[in-house]
Write a structure and sequence with these properties.
single chain, 345 residues, six-stranded parallel β-sheet
């Protein structure tokens, strides 16, 4: 089993929006080529330890059936940038290829795929929506408050900026919100990033729905399953650690952000003072029916928005080969395409 690319790299990429069936497809490919596949996670949430339910992380038993990489490599208090991913993935692909195996890159963090394909030579482009959001916050709270927010996520940049330096504070926060990377980390890695060339257009199977309603239903079902499995308690435990805040990349992940906000709102109502200090992590969720319903609605809506952004990214990747994930024969088509893309031409 071989792949021919411009870089003679033996790798196959499998991407798609959240809830499109990537994990099942990846395990099916690994089973088809048993013993010859190692999976590299392309997911900015799966890198974090202790974030299992809200990330739909494969179970420990599943992770043992196929070698996996870039899962549980960071504490939620730590950052992990697209530049770090691209460097790590390139190194792992080389190691996996040296073992005579196929590197199967699977996930939905499209910025990671882009960094791997194209390299990272520039800061993220301006995002009008994010800028408008920051300006609205500044009108309501003042730039010193946003400077304080910047200090929580990027102390190095905040230290060199005055509390009323609106233009630079806005840009630093914009970069962080758009990319999940701090401006200081990007500047520190600038020279290395210039040398980190992209790997080109690696073969890419893209799972995309023909009918958006199908994906929306899957998203709702999965979020309900996460709530039933204990997502709220998982976030309560993370809050109880005492070293996390809602501005960290880990806690801005879809599902975690909405659950954190729901718990914060519950605390502000004074319903359960012990939860304020994160002391009562074994208690029931504490959310009443209305609060739980609001959390569900916000979580599902945010996940739909994420899926929309993921699909937009995918459609900009010219090498993608689309498989309709809502088709009855989707899995057969994925396997046939994987076979075709892994045969030397």
């Amino acid at each position: 089993m071989n792949i021919t690319t411009t870089h003679n790299v033996h790798a196959l990429c499998l991407a798609g929006p959240t809830a499109s069936g990537k994990t099942a497809a990846a395990f099916a490919i690994a089973q088809k080529f048993r013993g010859q596949v190692e999976i590299i996670s392309v997911d900015s949430a799966l890198v974090y330890r202790g974030m299992d339910i809200g990330t739909a992380k494969p179970a420990a038993a599943e992770l043992l059936t196929v070698p996996h990489h870039l899962i549980d490599i960071r504490d939620p208090s730590q950052a992990y940038s697209a530049a770090e991913f691209a460097a790590d993935a390139q190194g792992l692909i080389a190691e996996i290829n040296a073992r005579g195996h196929l590197a199967l890159l699977v996930g939905g963090t499209m910025l990671y795929f882009k960094a791997l394909f194209d390299g990272l030579d520039a800061l993220p482009a301006a995002d009008p929506a994010v800028r408008a959001e920051l300006e609205a916050q500044a009108r309501a709270m003042g730039w010193p408050a946003l400077h304080a927010e910047l200090a929580r996520v990027d102390a190095i940049t905040a230290e060199r900026l005055a509390p009323n330096d609106s233009q630079r504070i806005q840009r630093a926060l914009e970069v962080f919100r758009v990319s999940g990377q701090t401006l200081s980390a990007l500047h520190a890695a600038k020279d290395r990033n210039r040398q980190l060339q992209g790997m080109g257009q690696l073969p890419l199977i893209s799972l995309e729905p023909q009918h958006r309603a199908w994906l929306h239903e899957r998203i709702a079902q999965r979020f309900d399953a996460m709530l039933a499995a204990g997502l709220i308690d998982e976030v309560k435990l993370l809050r109880a650690s005492g070293n996390l805040n809602p501005d960290l990349p880990s806690m801005r992940c879809v599902g975690y952000r909405q659950t954190w906000e729901a718990l914060e709102a519950h605390v502000k109502r004074g319903s359960n003072p012990e939860v304020v200090a994160g002391l009562d992590t074994n208690a029931a969720t504490g959310l009443d029916a209305e609060e739980l319903s609001t959390l569900r609605d916000k979580g599902i809506f945010a996940t739909r928005q994420l899926a929309k952004r993921q699909l937009t990214w995918l459609r900009s990747m010219p090498q993608r080969r689309v498989v309709y994930c809502d088709a009855p024969d989707a899995m057969q088509k994925v396997l046939a395409l994987a076979q075709a893309l892994t045969e030397r031409t």
